[in-house]
Amino acid sequence: MSKPLRRTAAVVASVAFAAALSGCTAGQWEPTAPPAAGVQTEEGGIKLRNFVVVSDGEGTGMVLGAIASRDEPAEIAGMGYSAQQEDGSFGEMTAIPFTASIAEGKTIVLDGAETTFTASDLLLGRLVEIAVVLEDGQRISLLVPIMSSEHPDFADAWEQAGA
Q: pLDDT tens digit string along 27-68?
């Protein structure tokens, strides 16, 4: 293969690779989403996406994020939280009264309206463990940051949830 032909092949391959990468988010990219939009995890066919806890720093918090069921319908039986203590440990899990049904291949969005809770131990900048419990007993946990309700990325969600 001649040098010009190899260069052309390399350029075509680079363009194809870039197009393939950009296609992964083409339909879901949110230009106004914050660059670090929360914490993700996946277990089985359940995906927890963009989880964050927003707090006013005075004892009220809310969970924001999304839960998707990839392979089959899912029933969310509950949710809980445990705030990080001064020594870095996490205390007992406290229930957040939240239930939901998710159809196969669908996503529900947690906008704070149904996931607001009272907790005096939420300290801005620390972590909180969030657990999502499914009807079959499966528990999916992740550690998420506690962000201020005054942060520009979360102030609108805080206001709309009426926290």
A: 555 555 444 568 999 998 999 999 999 999 898 999 999 999
Write down the H helix ranges in the chain.
3-23, 155-161
CA 139, 145, 148: angle at the middle one, nearest 5? 130
Taking CA 42 as the corner, what is the angle to CA 120 and CA 156, rounded to the nearest 5 degrees?
45
| Residues paired with 55 in a beta bridge | 61, 148
**Residue 103 Ramachandran class (φ > 0 left, ψ -120 to 50 alpha, else beta):** beta
Given a cut of 50, is residue 112 above it in pLDDT?
yes
**36 burial level (CB within 10 Å; 0-12, 13-18, 19+):** exposed
